[in-house]
Amino acid sequence: MFVKSTLVLAGVEVIAGAGAVLDGTSAIELSDVSIEPIKADKKSRNIVKPYAGVSPSKQANIHRTAKFKCDFAGAGGADGSVVPAWGVLHRMCQMTQTVDATVGAEKVTFVGNNPSSQVTGVLYYFIDAELRKLTGAQAKLSLEFKAGEIPKWSYEFTGLWSPPLIGAPPVPVYSQWKDPDVVSDDYTPTFQLAGVDLVLDDLSIDFGQKVNFKNRPNQAVVKTSDRETTGSATFLYPGKAALGVEALSRDGTLIPFVLVHGTATGRELRIDATHVQ
Fold first, then answer.
1. What is the pLDDT of residues 54-94, one digit of tens each?
2. CA distance linking residue 273 with residue 256, whole number of Å
3. Which of 72, 82, 185, 218 has CB atoms 3.0–4.6 Å from 77's, for a disulfide?
4. Element (H, E) at 87
5. Model's pTM, two decimal places?
């Protein structure tokens, strides 16, 4: 298949697994895209016969997975109350979206929610003229943030399987997706641990969603069971007097972490974590 000719649409479901009607305005601007059309467990029947050979098998727990990356970029606009184009994807990663339109303090926040408040979505994958859907979908989320590179969100979706369809894709609209800023001194004004400004080389964050597919009588469903966020940062050592990293590690001290990327109005992105070890 000509995978360069790929269009992905995404939307949030009202009823889990029921899908949604999507058009070109739901198009996702992405990179490093891949889809596993059928993901399943092969169960051998272990039939005994009076000759050598492979026993027939059955596919169990059939579902579909997909991976791709999106630019870590702000939404643009006159203030910070515009929802980023990737916001719909974050909601499927069990992040609660809140818009604050307070004049002078406009912002959109995403905070990890509880398993009891789960959101599911649907992805439409058009490759050539074939459509494959992931309904009831949820995802794992991570961030790649390296000096001199374009920062990327990375998504790994799990969804219900359905037969592929033949049909022409809609005309995509990408105007809601904004160009990213390269990780640099020009566009990344803040990287702090324990309130200390540090010279950052490389940062990765795995938000740690535990996404599972279960197929049981009367229920085939994707569920996020937990979230254990971890990360790794490489930075220039500021000296013991500025930040006693070994003592902090030894004692397991809880410290704040702050990252700010983007400087123009409507483009600032901020990650806050108040209890980092």
1. 999 999 999 999 999 999 999 988 888 999 999 999 999 99
2. 6
3. 82
4. helix 87-91
5. 0.94
